[in-house]
């Protein structure tokens, strides 16, 4: 498992960027990974994990939370509106707030509970038609709409286009966040988390570099 190496690389990237030690939260993306690898990361002290699928998380994390204390699980995959309630039971953070209908549902549920997970607005920085996320030009308006619903936002999240240089996308996300007074930046994956930290990431989402390749078979 590459957890120790990735932690060391995160720390080195923080230092190289002049960021405080521990400024970046490493989210270990455990989707589709065998349980034994996830348990090994927990035993090694990792406490923040990322999942893409509500159903998979529901089958895994209630039991793991009972066995390991201080765990925090972040939803980083697309969230269907009809699974929003279950998501609030399962996750400490949601990185994929990407449309008004989901914001409205979450606002209603959060009001009834009196507690809210950390929320990140997903921005489609590459304006890719097949990709989820609010378009860059519509993000200010979407953030204002969330705030008008009393939905507290922690920051923004992006997934740059495959094969493109991520750098400009990270800078674009950081710029939109700063314009809106948001400090959280969820950006950077196995291939580009160091560049993301240089651009100001507060949360990096690293899966295969920690756990090995995912077997979807
Ligand atoms: C799967 C996934 C990751 C992790 O990807 P790796 O390349 O395995 O590090 C990060 N972010 C999101 C949104 C993902 O779906």
TrEMBL record:
Gene3D superfamilies: Alanine racemase (3.20.20.10). The modification N6-(pyridoxal phosphate)lysine is found at residue 31. It comes from the Bacteria. Its cofactor is pyridoxal 5'-phosphate. Keywords: Pyridoxal phosphate. InterPro entries: Ala_racemase_N, PLP-binding_barrel, PyrdxlP_homeostasis. The keyword Iron does not apply. Pfam families: Ala_racemase_N. One of its GO terms (molecular function) is pyridoxal phosphate binding. Pyridoxal 5'-phosphate (PLP)-binding protein, which is involved in PLP homeostasis. Belongs to the pyridoxal phosphate-binding protein YggS/PROSC family. This is Pyridoxal phosphate homeostasis protein.
């Amino acid at each position: 498992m590459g957890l120790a190496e990735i932690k060391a690389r995160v720390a080195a990237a923080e230092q190289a960027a002049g960021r405080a030690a521990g400024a970046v939260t490493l989210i270990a993306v455990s989707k589709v990974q065998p349980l034994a690898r996830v348990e090994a990361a927990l035993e090694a002290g990792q406490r923040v994990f990322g999942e893409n699928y509500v159903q998979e998380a529901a089958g895994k994390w209630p039991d793991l939370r009972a066995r390991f204390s201080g765990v925090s699980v972040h939803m980083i995959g697309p969230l269907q509106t009809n699974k929003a309630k279950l998501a609030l039971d399962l996750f400490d953070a949601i990185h994929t707030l990407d449309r008004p209908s989901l914001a409205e549902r979450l606002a209603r549920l959060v009001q009834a509970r009196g507690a809210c997970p950390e929320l990140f607005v997903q921005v489609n920085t590459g304006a890719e038609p097949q990709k989820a996320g609010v378009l860059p030009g519509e993000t200010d308006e979407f953030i204002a709409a969330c705030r008008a619903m009393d939905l507290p936002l922690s920051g923004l999240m992006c997934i740059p286009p495959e094969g493109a240089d991520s750098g400009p996308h990270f800078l674009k996300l950081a710029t939109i966040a700063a314009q809106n007074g948001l400090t959280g930046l969820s950006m950077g994956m196995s291939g580009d988390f160091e560049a993301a930290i240089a651009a100001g990431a507060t949360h990096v989402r690293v899966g295969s570099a920690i756990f090995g390749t995912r077997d979807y078979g």
